[in-house]
Amino acid sequence: MALKLPTKVPAKGIFQLRVGSVVYLGKEKFAIIRIESPTVAIARNLSTMVDRPVTGADITSIAGLETVEEHGDLAEIGAEKLETALEKFKIIQPVLDGSICGRKAIQELAESSGYSVASIYQWIKAFKKTGVVSGLIRKTRADINKPRLPDSIEGIITKVLKEDFNDQLAPSPTAVQRKVATYCRRKKLRPPSLKSIRLRIAEQDPVQTAKSRGTHNDVLAMLPRRGSFPGADTPYSVIQIDHTPLDIEVVDEKDRIAIGKPWITVAIDVHSRMVVGWYVSIDPPGTLSTGICIANAILPKHNLLANLGLDYPWPCAGRMGVIHADNAREFRGNALKLACQEHGIDIKFRKVKKPHYGGHIERLLGTLLTELHAVPGTTKSNPKAKGDYRSDAEAILTLDELESWLAHLILGEYHHRVHGGLGVPPIRKYIAGICGDDQQPGIGTIPIVLDEDRLRLDFLPFEERVVNPGGIVLNYIHYYSPILNPWIGVENPEKGNSKQFRIKYDPRNMSFIYFYDPRTRLYHRVPYADPSRPAISLWEINAIRRYLDALNIHDINEDVLFKAREEMLKIEEKAKQQTKKVARERERKRTHDRAATPGGPLKRDRRVEMPPAVTPAFDHTQVRAFDEVEEL
Fold first, then answer.
1. Helix 538-550 and helix 558-596, axial crossing angle in degrees, nearest 10
2. How does DSSP classify residue 409?
3. What is the tens place of the pLDDT at every residue in 384-410?
4. pTM over 0.85
């Protein structure tokens, strides 16, 4: 089925608002003349020449960004195209970040990279126009599926780099290219260009190269040390992210029964030590929690603050240059990898047994855990410190209440306390990094996320599925929308089977999915085919599958799944009632014992005979609790 693809869609990346940017507030046109704070710019009305402060929320559109060339979902771009786009982005990143500027600097950048000045300007324009790495993808060429260089030449380049480039003599790219050319001529192959050699050199690990050359001091210069971190010279240049279980039990919203320890995923800006994003959940960390935390770190914070009911200043937003993470599985997942690549974010993994690579985030997490040790329901740091304290019995905070408590601690206290490693509060360091102060010039930009919903979507997990006459089936559940009709039964011409389409989903709510339509090159929300079905999470689905497996039921479909859910809810409700009854009886007995024996056990004086008429027998079991009386 041949479908015509549109060429224009709304911009979806991140735009850096700076002095000289032209924006629209409604139908009026303004020019940015000054960056006042990390979230406020001063704009001049180009008709009335009157100045006014503006925030990202005030801007309705940006000149030149109403529509952009769309290259589709990053996952459908070939590996070769993606690699080329990423190399282009790395070359122009100093210009985009404001580290270098001016014609002369760009000429030097062109000479060092082996590309023309015109190409550099073209890439800068393309990225600024789209805000995403996929905007640097060239149009489809006839040689789309062919490697840039034959395997025989790639092998020669790899051999020379391994044997010569890592040598103590440290040959220049030109010297490497000459040696590669010599080997190629011997085998009657066409030598690669200097540009190709430079690109391969750029892919080398600088730390490993320094080690191979035996330059110990160069290695040390690349490693983080206490009090400094390479590359973290400006806000959002380096972000550290990590997870930890919180040392506290939380209770459920309905019955206030302890349900266990939650997890928190936190992202911290190394330059300023500001917490730029977090995600709290009762579920162990994974792709979802990591993706949500990264998206929260990128996005402006007004919506998150509104949901928390807080008005603390939290100016952090923007695309980070590098994310430093540990080697956990979720950081290596394809969904996060593609999302970070699309937005020009480089993920670097913490070296095994090198704790100083994550020192900033680990010290912050240690601070949070220590503060929690004074909150009811704390589990302390270990069983010895906890002693006989019953965390589950003393727990009082729900998950939402705990997140609000953490928000007050982070946004209201931590950000405004003098940081020992900085000598100033983190928020002051962050503002200085944007606007400048007596010690340093600021970067002078305000990030504007062009499509917040699309950015959140980028960091959600995904699957690939076939579109059948009944719609799409995921985890035994059917989803349908008329948007799927053109793709029913479409075949993959390359493989001769049914074409699979990319879908994204939020594991917290599986009542709908997002279908990527190759025709519109946009994601469309697709609900349950049967709208009467209740919302369900992926964790519930997995629990139901385990429940059915225990019953030796393996023939599962949608009806079986939701029927089993109803049965599990009945079992769970019965168990909750029993738990509540036991808790009530225990509290009732404790209260009665305390009332009957104030100050300790009562010792009856056997010499005194109490008349039955004065003190009749009292059966405590006939007394109803107040909540039961209210029910009657």
1. 90
2. I
3. 766 777 887 888 888 889 999 999 999
4. no
